[in-house]
Amino acid sequence: MLLPSNVVLACLFIFLARICDVSLGTLRTVAVINGRRGVAWVLGFFEVLLWVLVVSQVIRMVDPQHWYYAVAYALGFASGNFVGITIERRIAHGEQVVRVFTRRGMELARHLREDGYGVTEFDGRGKDGPVGMLFIETRRRRVSRLLARARELDPGCFYIVDDVRIRSVAGGQAQRQGK
Q1: Is the pLDDT of residue 110 over 60?
Q2: What is the tally of structural domains in the chain?
């Protein structure tokens, strides 16, 4: 079954528009979680505007004989999730704290400090004896490099990565990010 070019173009438009609105939705969700109200507002406006335009056209056109519009809609939605997550990872906005658990705490902390990371050390005890706990706050963009370096220095280390919601500023007062 060969579709007319206008149908193919309509399906392509639906597919691309869904990629855009779902990607905006993914970025908006991250902005909401990070407390970035203004960014979330702008992204939400354009996300819903696109969605309303596309879904109104699809609902008008879909019937059992024109099922391909629904398929284009669904493919755009699925692809939009993928694209949105990919964009968000590239932007990598914000700070994270990496908690590294290692038997080579002092040595690992020294090397990471030499690499320019701020490291706070704690002594702990695990089921097999003493363990060093290192807390390192860093930009999200730098986390993968930090983890690669930690594994290079101690392949047996264990780590946990968390988003930072409150961080210390000069004077010791806590300030919420995303205002």
Answers
A1: yes
A2: 2
